[in-house]
Amino acid sequence: MLPLPLLLLLAAPPPTPAAATNQAPAPVEPAKGWFRPGEVEKGCVARAIALPAGITASGTLKVRFVVWTDGTADRVELPGEVSPLVAEAITAAVKGCRFTPGRRPDGARAPVWTVLPLRFVDEAGAGGEKPAGGAPPATAAMPAAGTPPREADPGCVQKQFHFRFPPNQLLRGVLVMRVAMSAEGRPGAFEFPPDLPGEVADAFKLSVEGCRFLPAAAPGGQAVAGTFEHRVVFTLPGDAERAAGTGPKLKREARLASTTCLQRLHPYGMVGHAVVAVKVTARGVPTDFRLKPDNVPADMRLHIFDVLTTCKWEPAIGPDDQPVDGDTVVTIRYR
Known about the structure:
With 335 residues, this protein is of the alpha+beta class. The chain folds into three domains: 26-124, TolA/TonB C-terminal domain; 146-234; 239-334, TolA/TonB C-terminal domain (2-Layer Sandwich), CATH 3.30.2420. Helix content is 21%, strand content 28%.
């Protein structure tokens, strides 16, 4: 007779396969207002294409593939006239590179289809002579790519930057920052977009200096200097709904009856902006405050919400001229 524990084990139903309960969302075509994927290291795919000996390619073609939310790529699609050996080399190059994920207008990651144009030239012009017709000099086949500098703890810079980002800054769009990394993985010169506020640049520098990095690797595997690139997407409350054209159709959005109540705000020496999204009921009662940036100090956050609660609000007006629940956004400027 079998022991009781074993009998219980045999009677238990088989576990549900992970694939049946954790399906990844299907990739979509990015719509207007979406942030499209891009190579983490610009030119990675072109450098990674290693054509077999004796195989050449020329002309321009468009490669279509899916970029998933973790930055990996697959489902590579190529024009039918591309030879199998060239297609295999391109597919391997795409899958071997990392990409910035596609994002919806609200900043949420999403798997999307993307297209990358590639230009091939014959090796005949590699010596610098121009082919007939005045075309630019051709180049030889690129060697297999290495890897760019990367965080030893993935996501470290974003975590640090989230907490260091100045709470009085109001930004929208994509912010791209680059850092020159030595062969030892140490940060050097920083590159920022023009007119970036100094507080934001300083916060990013401190974030990078607070993380450890693995250096770039050459195709042969040896450590080399390289460039680390970091992208941050900034959105404001309601951006996604406005871009998608969703939400109720109103004759008038909810609003403050008067802005004089905001004079009671005491920003404690802060200078800049904060944006608060507010739900206002049909009776003019404010609820559900959401603040951007979301890293405003807790005491300042509560102070803002307390003041806005005491303000008088006018509800939204629906198509039938009746008060309805609605959303609004209030921008608070500190002086």
